[in-house]
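Help!! Second protein's tokens look totally different from the first
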Amino acid sequence: MKKGFYTLFISLIALLSAAQDQQFTQFYAVPCALNPAFAGAGLQSRFATQYRNQWSGIPKAFTSYVATFDTYSNELKSGFGLVFQRDIAGAGGLSRSQFGFQYAYETRLKKNLYIRPAIQFSMGTRSVNFNNLTFYDQLIRNNAPISLETYPGQSVVYFDAGAGGLIYGPEFWAGFSAMHLNTPDESLYESQVSYLPVRYAFHGGKRFRIKGYSLKKLDHHVLVAANYLSQGK
């Protein structure tokens, strides 16, 4: 009976839950995942990946992946990027995958000051394997291998859109991004909705020059960076 209560409790919580994006402490390790305006911002083509295994002591807890590739075209004064993100959680393999294309245009405001407006278009999927879950009717039937429950759709596909901007010079940079502008519905139930809330990010950094006192009189620099994220409640 106690197991059945826990199953019912978790089911009710799921009806009230709200989704949220991946969160990484090292937010500048994969800058294109943070802001599409970073696409092509490097001097060369760039490939970056990031992996997180949260609560590894719990079997099949939360696992996140992200991989990006970006490059810059001098002729078009534009940056192009590709972003792949995936989350997997729980025994049922509740997952969200998203593949996006980024475009950023770079223009010079004045000497050593540039601005980069950008957009991102993505296709996303959310899915779960109900066959790997245990339902209340299985518990009261002596752990029956098959549930009598009727399942909703096991996957959904949605379109996603985002935008961002970046302004930078030799000693500083500042940017913002707003992802999921169309708040896509990723609910697996046709009778319910589960909108992915807009994610806002504000970030920037400053490079401080420290005069060198070594034999070669080399200068050193200290980089300070910060990021603020807000998404839903």
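Here's the second one for comparison:
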Amino acid sequence: MNINTRRILGAASIAIATATPMAASAQAMSDKWTFQASIYGWLPEIGGKTTFPAGTGSSINVTGEEILDSLKFTFMGTFEAHKGRWGLFTDLIYPDVGGSKSGTRDITVDGHPLPVGVSANAQSDMKSVVWTLAGTYTLAARPDVYAEVLAGARMLDIKQTLGWQFSADLDDVSRVDRTGNAEVSKTVTDGIIGVKGRFMFGDDRKWFVPYYVDIGTGQSDLTWQAVGGLGYKFGWGQVFGVWRYLDYTFKSDAKIEDVNFNGPAIGVAFNW
């Protein structure tokens, strides 16, 4: 059993142990369909490391936070449907992030720092789609606690481009061209399990603490996500602010070694 499998089984055990005591006190659920749709804005920092092909047998290594610092476009939303204890949950994220750096030395060539006196102008762009689809089962639906477990899959489709211009030739240490462009892309699908819900508080239970945690593996080595924050409930729906972290670790020979999205989000949810 490899280390990531143990991590996933351990996280699943914690999730089940946490949620099981709630199940005994769960109230009867309505057999009518209920729905919730959310739209939100997420402003994540992008981390991770990518290796771009750059000439015969050479490569340029870049970490996300060094260049990717500007959000160009994003769409993010969720949809949920419930009938009785069973439900369906889906979440879609489309961030387009880019950026540029002039005179930077924060990149490596063939795994080595740039030679003394050499810098680079670099431009990078990352487009990605993250789609989660899962079935849910409600464990608790009390005035103060709502909790459900989920199981499903998450797909990541990512494409990253890099353009560079070195201030001097690197012929003495590398076969990388002085100027160039490169692109890498990857699509993976992983099975996930998790828990989500909210804790309500206040005299009228309108304030709540939302939470979401999942973990999984499959075509990636490991993926996991955590969300937590604060919200307020109205008759028509909810408003909320949360912190969201999404992480991917890929196989050791992948051009995109890992990527993570980390930052605050605000949104609104509509119920009917």
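Reply: Different proteins will give different token patterns, so don't panic. Residues 3-23 form the longest helix (21 residues).
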